[in-house]
Design brief:
The chain has 80 residues and is mainly beta. Helices cover 5% and strands 62% of the residues. A five-stranded antiparallel β-sheet has the order 1-8-7-6-5. Strands 2-3-4 form a three-stranded antiparallel β-sheet, with no helix packed on it.
Length: 80
């Protein structure tokens, strides 16, 4: 699935990682209930976030240009 811009509220953890607490996507605000796996690659810093109902979204923070992107996972999009 392709990624698209998203507004994210996140805390910077002392371990050098972002911890998203909520995000706004398609004019709807989602509260992050739990954080799953995170990793870094050429695309940026990836964080798997679970919201209510067990839906999982992949948030990606890029430095250049700086900003957050979202990639809905198969679970979130109902294709799992």
């Amino acid at each position: 699935m392709s990624m698209e811009p998203v507004r994210v509220q996140a805390r910077w953890k002392h371990e050098g990682r972002f911890e998203p607490s909520q995000f706004q996507w398609k004019e709807k605000l989602y509260r992050v209930e739990s954080i799953g796996r995170s990793w870094e690659d050429a695309e940026g810093l990836h964080v798997l976030c679970m919201i209510s109902g067990g839906k999982v979204y992949e948030l990606v923070f890029r430095l250049n240009p700086a900003g957050w992107l979202i990639r809905p996972t198969a679970v979130a999009s109902g294709k799992a």
